[in-house]
Amino acid sequence: MAGVIMHVQGAKSQIRTPMDLVAALRRPIVELLPEVSEGGVLGSLVLLDEADGLTDSALEVAADYTFALFDREADPATSWLPKWAWQRDEQVERAVFQATVQTGDQKVYTASRLFLIEHPAGFSRDLIDERNTNPRYAGAKAVAEYVDIPRDRSHRGSADGDSWWWPCPACRWPMRVKERSVFCSYSPHEARFEIKGYDLGQPQLRKVSTVRLRTPKALPVTGAGCLDPAVWRFITVPGLPEVVLQQLESEELGIRVTPWPIMDTFDALVTAPGFAPWTVDVKDHVDARRIIDEPPAARHVLVPKYRRNQIPQLSRALPDKTFWTVESFMKHVRTVVGRGDAQ
């Protein structure tokens, strides 16, 4: 890669050796590639942390852009790569839900997907019981494997040597543990804590982020499992605002929300008596270009509140779509249906 950069930049390249490149990866990428806009998504990105691991910001960008670059089956030298290096959201969805799609059963598909969104981690026995007995997940299949809690997401206690993990209060997937810091790998969730001490051998957390979040309790690693990071990133995380959208349903107003209709042709179909249906897709990407380059099928495109700054750019680039935050769309539908306004 040092050679590639030297070739592209020519005489102006500040990279002369591979170690020059390694050092540059610990600084904002605009210093490595000056042509990258400082105000853009990539300009301030730092790729490696102080331990030479990928930063969470780098992982987030990679999840949007890095896919189909490697044929893992053909080249075993790529086995060290995380799954997001050769998979993207559509690929993960196809792999996970292939069995349910083949059955043609919409209820099974919906229940299976909902379970992965609402239960990305937990005690293995509890997960099985919840999927099999809770009417909310009636018919759900075990479409994704739960793996052991990763070592970088567990904390070894100081008393009896037990290891502990904490679910993110936003997505319920195991938070990363780095010395005394505990935080969700998905930075928009803004879940940041620190280990403040122990109570009867159980480590306790103190919230250090400013957002309103509950402080989770430590759970023992023994007997627990979590979804593979690719399934969490591409199904659980984007599914959270899709589940919130279901709160739009109203018996009084006659509003109905059908999640992932026709095997996920759209993310949701919203209907109300006397109104044309709203077809809805929810998109959560670090860079709005990902949405622009692959326009959603739905007429209404929703982004989480933390992506609301993307809406003007998206509206200019895709004028045939209407863009909202999840909350503003829900308010709009309730308002027009409540007033009986014509669409």
Automatic annotation (TrEMBL):
Residues 15-121 form the pPIWI-RE three-gene island domain. Residues 239-338 form the REase associating with pPIWI RE domain. Coiled coil: none annotated. InterPro entries: pPIWI_RE_REase (IPR040828), pPIWI_RE_Y (IPR041191). This is REase associating with pPIWI RE domain-containing protein.
